[in-house]
């Protein structure tokens, strides 16, 4: 009942419990159904990666049981997950396998569902005739067997095809029919409302389009608010990402780009802002304008929104906002991945004149270059693949007729990552000096479970602690550096918190990301400080530093950004967090941290101190000049 009522968080709890029980007693039939249903709950919550795994596991169970009808269902469902993940080729392969099985077993119901899914994929590929043929067949089959849900899905797709073919009368008629019958299915209701909005926008009926966009967003927001579990809300925005993009496109086309910026920013970091007790309505009137925030922080804000057709950059300075249109997300992401792969292979992009690094600078920064004087403080509000990409290592080309040579962007600016402008608007400029109390946990006892001793951890501990008087520091190392020591130390009293340890990041369950500490004598298996535990301990820290691999996390959620340990400490209330976007080097990191804390002791702000430490490495003659070593760490700003 919870699944059919679209109360997906409740349904997921039940299905997970059922699958655990069924697995324990080897009840494979119940296990297969529980896995598949859990997949649907994950899918409906927007967590397509977990959904795919559940569907694939369910399909294997169904195949072993000889349950052909369910095997077809889970094949089609896995294909749908792959479609949402953007892997259209693999999705098509799953759909076609499901269709072959459905034809062979004369399963009309599964054939109708899969034909509709394949038609949607073909429409995405621009193959209108092939898509129409498929969906017409699906609708005919659904009507013959009296499957109302499949009939509505096929009808909705027919409306989308009619809209693409500029058949106005057919489009309105079909969407109206679907909308009448979709009242009990919120997801289909908001999709239909958004489709109506897109249709009226294409006909330049501005008032009607705006009305339907707002209806769609309200329906989506009502459904999102029903998800009570914070971890399950993280992926949910993926269901509404298209709604927000479409409405922003509409506002921009209507010459309301500032309104589009406020609207998109209101959708960023929703779960983080809710956890911090902030108001999260996208339409809420903000306490100050973005340009006022930039002025107050003496900074330039670069807000990115990557999309399938086009991307946007808003550059915000004290004088106002400036909109630039960028290439589609796929093109930017391909370049980001290519460049990052070169960096992780220890290439020297500056000496090699890396073309991807130059293209990315020319695309992502150069349009707004005139608004960013040298030595500017820059906040990046990223999108998509930019969430786990350090833009400091972009290559700015040399200027002909000038003595300026090609160089990394970090040479020009002090850069921080921010979750949203709303959160930045609540950030103090940072001139005041907080009480300098340090909690330092690290150099743990090796667990012997794939986490070897960190040979330079002790030296990093020593280099950090010496900047704080004995009475202002709590240092827990070796056998004292156990997970429970973090909470027992009352971390809310410290202005600086620093970890020196191994880190692990989970893509499937990002709140299972953890700092690997010492195993307690009484509970040797309990040696990890998990992100999910961190968020429940409120903080007031000026800066948390996670000197560990992958402290930033591996999972990027639409609207929420990168979620892992860094996100967890921001969620707990830390003002700024330093985390790593890839595996860090045990030899270079202590040098970086020592120089950063030297800068902090001299009164520099965290972004300035971290930048100076990185520049020191960059300007060295050894191997540490490469971005592999200094660009791993990023500074994340909360509120």
UniProtKB/TrEMBL annotation:
Annotated SUPFAM superfamilies: TPR-like
Domain CHAT residues, every copy: 356-636
Pfam family name, one: CHAT
Protein name (database record): CHAT domain-containing protein/predicted negative regulator of RcsB-dependent stress response
Organism: Granulicella mallensis
């Amino acid at each position: 009942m919870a699944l059919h009522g679209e109360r997906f968080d409740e349904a997921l709890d039940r299905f997970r419990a059922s699958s655990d029980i069924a697995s324990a007693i080897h009840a494979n039939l119940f296990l297969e159904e529980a896995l598949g249903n859990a997949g649907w709950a994950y899918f409906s919550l927007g967590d397509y990666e977990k959904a795919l795994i559940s569907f694939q596991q369910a399909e294997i169970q169904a195949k072993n049981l000889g349950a052909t009808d369910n095997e077809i269902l889970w094949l089609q469902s896995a294909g749908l997950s792959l479609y949402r993940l953007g892997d259209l080729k693999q999705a098509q392969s799953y759909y076609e396998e499901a269709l072959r099985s459905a034809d062979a077993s004369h399963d009309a119901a599964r054939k109708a569902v899969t034909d509709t899914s394949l038609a949607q994929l073909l429409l995405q590929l621009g193959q209108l005739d092939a898509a129409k043929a498929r969906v017409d067949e699906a609708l005919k089959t659904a009507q013959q067997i009296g499957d109302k849900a499949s009939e509505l899905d096929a009808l909705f797709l027919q409306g989308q095809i009619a809209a693409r073919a500029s058949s106005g009368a057919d489009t309105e008629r079909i969407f109206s029919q679907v909308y009448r019958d979709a009242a009990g299915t919120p997801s289909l209701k908001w999709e239909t409302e958004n489709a109506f909005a897109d249709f009226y926008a294409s006909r330049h009926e501005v008032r009607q389009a705006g009305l339907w966009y707002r209806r769609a967003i309200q329906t989506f927001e009502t459904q999102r608010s029903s998800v009570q579990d914070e971890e399950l809300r993280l992926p949910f925005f993926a269901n509404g990402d298209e709604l927000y993009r479409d409405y922003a496109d509409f506002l921009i086309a209507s010459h309301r780009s500032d309104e589009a910026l406020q609207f998109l920013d209101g959708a960023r970091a929703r779960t983080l802002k809710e956890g911090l007790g902030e108001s999260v309505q996208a339409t809420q009137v903000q306490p100050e304008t973005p340009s006022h925030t930039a002025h107050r922080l003496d900074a330039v804000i670069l807000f990115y929104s990557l999309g399938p057709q086009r991307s946007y950059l808003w550059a915000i300075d004290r004088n106002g906002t400036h909109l630039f249109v960028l290439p589609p997300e796929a093109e930017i992401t391909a370049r980001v991945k290519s460049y990052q792969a070169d960096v992780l292979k220890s290439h020297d992009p500056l000496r090699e004149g890396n073309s991807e690094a130059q293209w990315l600078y020319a695309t992502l920064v150069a349009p707004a270059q005139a608004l960013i004087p040298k030595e500017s403080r820059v906040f990046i509000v990223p999108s998509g693949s930019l969430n786990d990409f350090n833009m400091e290592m972009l290559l700015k080309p040399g200027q002909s007729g000038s003595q300026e040579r090609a160089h990394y962007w970090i040479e020009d600016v002090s850069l921080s990552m921010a979750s949203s402008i709303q959160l930045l608007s609540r950030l103090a400029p940072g001139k005041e000096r907080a009480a300098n109390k340090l909690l330092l946990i690290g150099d743990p006892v090796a667990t012997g479970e794939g986490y070897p001793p960190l040979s330079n951890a002790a030296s990093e501990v020593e280099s950090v602690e010496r900047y704080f008087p004995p009475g202002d520091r709590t240092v827990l190392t070796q056998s004292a550096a156990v997970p429970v020591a973090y909470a027992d130390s009352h971390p809310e009293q410290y202005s600086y918190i620093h970890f020196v340890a191994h880190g692990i990041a989970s893509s499937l369950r990002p709140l299972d990301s953890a700092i690997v500490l010492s195993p307690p004598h009484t509970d040797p298996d309990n040696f990890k400080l998990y992100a999910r535990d961190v968020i429940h301990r409120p903080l007031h820290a000026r800066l948390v530093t996670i000197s560990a691999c992958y402290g930033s996390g591996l999972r990027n959620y639409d609207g929420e950004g990168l979620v892992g340990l860094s996100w967890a400490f921001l969620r707990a209330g830390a003002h700024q967090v330093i985390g790593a976007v890839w595996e860090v080097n045990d030899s270079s990191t202590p040098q970086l941290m020592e120089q950063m804390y030297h800068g902090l002791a001299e009164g520099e702000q965290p972004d300035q101190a971290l930048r100076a430490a990185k520049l020191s490495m960059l300007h060295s003659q050894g191997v540490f000049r490469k971005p592999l070593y200094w660009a791993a760490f990023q500074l994340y700003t909360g509120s």
